[in-house]
Amino acid sequence: MNTLPAPSPLGNRQLWQWLVVAGAVGVVIWLLGPILTPFVISALLAWLGEPLVRKIERTGRSRTAAVLLVFTLMTLVLVLAVLLLVPLVESQVSNFINWLPRFGQWLTGTAVPWLESRFKLELAGYVDPSQLIALLKEHWRQAGGVAATVMGELSKSGMAVVTWIVNLALVPVVTFFFMRDGSSMLAKARDLLPRPIEPTVTKLAHESDQVLGGFIRGQLSVMIALGTIYAVGLTAVGVDLGILIGIVAGLVSFVPYLGAIVGLGAAVIATLVQHGDLMHLALVLGVFGLGQLLESFWLTPWLVGDKIGLHPVAVIFAVMAGGQLFGFLGVLLALPAAAVAVVVGRHVYERYTESELYGADESAAIITDAEAVNPPVGGTSVPKGFGTEVPPTKDQ
Fold this sequence. Notes:
By secondary structure, this protein is mainly alpha-helical. The protein is about 80% helix and about 0% strand.
């Protein structure tokens, strides 16, 4: 029986060195968290624009010209999104607050009596829409109060206002330089790596980029497309809260079918409260049916394809854990860290299954010895005496 080799002192020392380096990096990130946020945002924006920069470079333009084009395009998109979405969301939230009393009347006057008569239930004593509406309004007031408190504290502290403005102004500047010089920065960082581990680290970094890109550039695009389809479709069929429902459904669409379930449930209730007829209900069902067809047969195959992304549960856990540990900076770093963890875990698993600890070499040796004793017939190892003899022919 093969015995495991004794651990190498050099290998143990290198392992401890890397653990110390990783711990030191974590401490530095934690200490510099308040000032790292604009740099992390800039790095993510530059990473998102890098594929388009490379495509423009391949047309013969210089990298600086390509970066200027992409940077201008991204700035215009962000400005237009803010100018268009903020008034729409504000209007939709106001409509939602005004819609709540109508929802209470529909709940007590239509939904509860129908459920009681249909399923022989006694719900009148348990359903109090006034309490539900009051609870929703109170939470909304508390959210507004928190926002007002934060803005008030910012206005009182001149240093906080200056810091916020500086961070906001840093994002576009740092993004531009990351987009222009990011490739050379990464090349210099790769040159500083110890030569024995440079190929492995480069491979892991490339795979991490593929995993993260498969989720953000793929699944995020699907989320935006579905949110737009639902918002435009529901508004077109006459649902007053269509834009708000579409945005929410798009945001939760990274979990398969959750966006359609949440959006359809909210849209059905909003349609019944507003219109109360089968025609509008059928139109709402048609909007979500069309959205699911487009997602299954066009959006996901085209935008995501066979890219290896992050599992939705891993995304939820990573974002929550990052926010709990490092606040807003942790939320920004959650997905990149999760992508690296997935790739490293896959690499460790492959190394483990090929190691002597797993027994891969010993299993291969056993299989080889068995095939030497009983050669395979027709591609399958068959023990001697079980159909391996060839019967004689008539000529024999």
